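Thread: "does anyone have the structure for this chain?"

Original post by V.I.:
We have the sequence but no experimental structure in hand. Need at least a predicted one for the grant figures.
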Amino acid sequence: MPPVEPETEEEKRQYEEALRRREMRLIMAGKLDPERASTLKLT
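Reply from O.Q.:
Generated one for you, tokens below.
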């Protein structure tokens, strides 16, 4: 199955938001180190 490619600006925004939510869930579950999260900025 080919990867999903967002085409419109709305789809791109939704795709990025979904990736942020996924990373946050994995961090909260202890399955992803916050330093390795690509979309979350740590300050």
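V.I.: this helps a lot. The helical segments are 9-28.
O.Q.: and Residues 9-28 form the longest helix (20 residues).
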